[in-house]
């Protein structure tokens, strides 16, 4: 599948082990290329899906000078959105505790922005998933944070980890989007790439 990509060298511009696992699951041959300290700030006028879409494009722009003809680069950014605010990667343990307490017993949204870039064109899209958490006890929240150290994850949780097993009541949208890459939509977009 995706024989149309054979003329491209596919680059995943991400250090995320989850994104690597998901792109591998699509059967895409790729290499990882990362830059240190790509600016992930965004205008405070942006809301919801527009935020990770903006950051995914900014990441692509940071790599553009290094992109060679015949290379196709994928950049992505994921946020958790609750009460009109971004829950990004927690700054520390207390921040992670606050995030999970805020999401307990409630529905939040996960948005991922994805940008596909070559030297000739760029295409981008955003995916949305609603996630409902059951009421989590303080003991469950502290156990998860202390045992799994989710400091590298938006919203301080990984849906594929223990907290997802015991806490996620309902999902509307792509499960893999919550992990950081909406692979079903990405596959459809990659199918549209001209060979």
UniProtKB/TrEMBL annotation:
Site label Important for substrate specificity, positions: 18, 78, 160
Active site: 77
Enzyme nomenclature, EC number: 3.6.1.9
Gene Ontology MF terms: dTTP diphosphatase activity; UTP diphosphatase activity
Compartment annotation: Cytoplasm
Xref: InterPro entries: ITPase-like_fam (IPR029001), Maf-like (IPR003697)
Main location: cytoplasm
CDD domains hit by this protein: Maf
Catalyses which reaction(s): N(7)-methyl-GTP + H2O = N(7)-methyl-GMP + diphosphate + H(+); dTTP + H2O = dTMP + diphosphate + H(+); UTP + H2O = UMP + diphosphate + H(+)
GO cellular component, one term: cytoplasm
Keywords from the UniProt entry: Cytoplasm, Hydrolase, Nucleotide metabolism
Cofactor needs: a divalent metal cation
Class of this enzyme: hydrolase
Biological processes, Gene Ontology terms: nucleotide metabolic process
Protein's job: Nucleoside triphosphate pyrophosphatase that hydrolyzes dTTP and UTP. May have a dual role in cell division arrest and in preventing the incorporation of modified nucleotides into cellular nucleic acids.
Entry similarity comment: Belongs to the Maf family. YceF subfamily.
Stated name of the protein: dTTP/UTP pyrophosphatase
Organism: Bacteroides clarus
Lineage: Bacteria, Pseudomonadati, Bacteroidota, Bacteroidia, Bacteroidales
């Amino acid at each position: 599948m995706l024989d149309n990509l054979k003329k491209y060298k596919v680059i995943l511009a991400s250090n995320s082990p989850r994104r690597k696992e998901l792109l591998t699951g699509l059967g895409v041959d790729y290499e990882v290329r990362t830059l240190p300290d790509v600016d992930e700030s965004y205008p405070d006028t942006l809301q919801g899906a527009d935020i990770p879409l903006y950051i995914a494009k900014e990441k692509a722009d940071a790599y553009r000078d290094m992109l060679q003809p015949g290379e196709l680069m994928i950049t992505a950014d994921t946020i958790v959105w609750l009460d009109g605010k971004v829950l990004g990667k927690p700054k520390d343990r207390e921040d992670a505790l606050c995030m999970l307490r805020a999401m307990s017993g409630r529905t939040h949204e996960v948005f991922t922005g994805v940008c596909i870039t070559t030297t000739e064109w760029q295409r981008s899209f955003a995916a949305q998933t609603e996630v409902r958490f059951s009421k989590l006890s303080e003991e469950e929240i502290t156990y998860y944070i202390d045992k799994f150290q989710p400091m590298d994850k938006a919203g301080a949780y990984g849906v594929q980890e223990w907290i997802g097993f015991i806490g996620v009541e309902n999902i509307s949208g792509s499960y893999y989007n919550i992990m950081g890459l909406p692979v079903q939509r990405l596959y459809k977009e990659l199918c549209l790439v001209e060979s």
